[in-house]
Amino acid sequence: LAEVTDYDLIVIGAGPGGYVAAIRAAQLGMKVACVEKRSTLGGTCLNVGCIPSKALLYASEQYEAVQTQFENLGVIVKDVQLDLAKMQAHKQSVIDANVAGVEFLLKKNKITWLKGTATITAPGHVSIDDTIVTARSILIATGSESVSLSGVEIDEKQVVTSTGALALEKVPEHLVVIGGGVIGIELGSVWHRLGAKVTIIEYFDRLLPGFDKEVSLTFAKILEKKGISLKLAHKVEKIEKEGSQLQLTITNTAGDKTEHLSADVVLVSVGRRPITHGLGLEALGVPLDDKGRIKVNSQFQTNIAGIYAIGDVITGPMLAHKAEEEGVAVAELLAGQKPHVNYDLIPSVVYTDPEIAMVGKTEEVLKADSIDYTIGKFPFSANGRARAMNKTDGFVKILADKRTNKVLGVHIIGPHCSEMIAEIVLAMNFGASAEDIALTCHAHPTLTESIKEAALGTQKRSIHL
Ligand code: FAD
């Protein structure tokens, strides 16, 4: 590598991993460029992921609440109508504002946006279309893309991934969602609230594998009560087009029952795979793991000095905030600092109604690891604020070490728990015991009092239960 390079750092990909790394590196005095092939910055998250899905989840939740919850509060609204084009325009305006915000931040930090597709031609050398640029360090933050089922062709109109499901121009009559993970459940909820019949097919015997089993079973009951059909322990054999309809053949995993479903839209949400193609990794000899993710060491370094990777393209949960933490860490490592990403404390959230939020270990993991624990549980039905809001479904469950009372995991299903979980992550980051949380004064009446009560519950001394 020549002594004088164009940049200290070239980041490939401007998603939450890449653009955050670029900003932190610029703050630390590096000369930084960020390559992005999409016409806007922000990656999957801002363009076709977290942000647009939350815009539609919020808007559709209001639409449903007006019809199903307002009357009980004494608010009579007549002639509720859906203007889907306007709802989609709201989503787009949120995307536009966010991606413009990232562009502003890159400019503010004097980061060069190199538009195009990057390939690493040699250590320190990146080609963007026909131009070669050089850098002391290269960070791969190319993210992930949806996978399909074998034999199922995605047209993003009728057979869609999350990207097509975020952009439907008409509410489907019957939407079949293949895959009961976070993305399938969130987008299934959106279209169900807007009037579609929704069936979720999941191969596993419960929704949201990876979340606490009790939470997932409670949530399945709530979804069914809302009218979403669940086909758990089922798999899709084939999808055939018949006129304007799609015919699905599904079997149970035991293999002794076959059923046929007719749908006008099918959402395939069976997972995402890292984007590593076209980066030149094979020629460089950068190894991938069995799931196609770039192998890195604890310093996010590949086997080649000066080439790093973060975010969805490496191991770990495919979450925006995980990618951001890693982005900051790489920039600080390059500046000679000693950052640390605590992988035990990355919260996971499902933005449905009720919401689900978790951090730390599940009961299933604690049992498998033979760790003795106590449970403190508090239902929202016993929380005054939740009652005032008519949002009493769900509970807070705190798992604490039996001997030390240290918090090991927290699982919440209930209103606004996407926000409430931050208190827990902070507490756990300081190594809190459940008693530390219980000794903390929580404002009344708030939903967070349920956290305090669950914390008291680990020592069997909840007040309001
Ligand atoms: P990405 O955001 O995927 O960004 C990578 C960028 O690299 C892309 O813009 C891509 O165009 C670019 N790129 C790829 N290859 C090249 C190349 N060779 N040259 C130039 N540019 C390239 N996560 C959450 O935490 N919360 C949520 O609520 C949430 N909701 C989601 C909802 C949906 C529908 C989806 C699909 C995902 C959701 N996620 C959510 C996941 C989240 O979007 C990802 O974890 C996150 O975007 C990963 O960030 P990243 O920086 O690693 O990659």
UniProtKB/TrEMBL annotation:
Disulfide bonds join 45-50. Its EC number is 1.8.1.4. NAD(+) binds at residues 179-186, 202, 271. GO terms for biological process: 2-oxoglutarate metabolic process. It comes from the Bacteria. One of its GO terms (cellular component) is cytoplasm. Keywords: Disulfide bond, FAD, Flavoprotein, Lipoyl, NAD, Nucleotide-binding, Oxidoreductase, Redox-active center. It is an enzyme of class 1 (oxidoreductase). One of its GO terms (molecular function) is dihydrolipoyl dehydrogenase (NADH) activity. Belongs to the class-I pyridine nucleotide-disulfide oxidoreductase family. The active site is a redox-active disulfide bond. This is Dihydrolipoyl dehydrogenase. It comes from Commensalibacter intestini. The lineage of its organism: Bacteria, Pseudomonadati, Pseudomonadota, Alphaproteobacteria, Acetobacterales. The chain holds residues 104 to 568 of 568 of the full protein.
